[in-house]
Structure prediction request, 272 residues.
Amino acid sequence: MSESIPGRTRIDTTVRGLHVVIDGDPAAPPLLLIHGSGATGSTWEPVLPSLATTYRVITIDLPGCGRSEPESTYAVPQQADRTAAVLDELGFRNLKVVGHSSGGYVASALVERRPDLVGELVLVGTGPSLAALLPEPALIKALAAPPFGPLVWAIRTDSMIRRGLAATAAAPITVSDKAVADLRRTTYRTFRAILSANMDYIAASTVPERLISAGKPLLVIFGDSDPRWDPAAAHQYEAVPGAELRYLRGVGHMAMLEDRDALLRAILDYTL
Prediction:
């Protein structure tokens, strides 16, 4: 499905089993938005219209998430390969890639496996290492952890989904009905498999270690009140040559939902 307005074209489609939305001027530089664990492309809704005035924005539902088909493995390198296959089919190269939370792991793996696709890398609230992980908020643990996680997941209401996201924020957030509906599509089994794969990825090597020799411009954006990852641990990224680190004041883990304008400024101001 496509929708055209002057200077801007929006396409909502499925490519190689993954749900993709492309928005903005077809002649504008491309920007890829990658969501975090168990989330979907629709969580980027608050920042999409503004980004689409400058970029050709691609949002993607990773395998098993939202409207995308499930996968036999959710290992981060394979998620990156699936993403790369979509970008190849669409004909994109040299993108600015923005990864939120564990979406930053997929973005980093994309740099490792297909550096031709990545021009600049922006990581938003992406935990750099296992040591930076903070204890889970109680509601997140109830939704995600066995033995009761599957039961809670099966009976969760829209309100519980919203409260689960809010538990990782430091400021009030609004989650659209569309985003909640997309989040509901992800199964408990898939969510747990994704979480496990993400931990395996950073246990094998930290994100800064993976990017030190990549030679890609790197911007790291972190909420100074993030309850999921120790905000001070973001300084680990300073090991990457030329990396820039920006903290968002009063923001937790869901920057796009907590302070859209601050996140937009950070992304849009970062140009080479």
Observations:
- The chain has one domain: 2-134+189-269.
- The first strand starts at residue 2 and ends at 5.
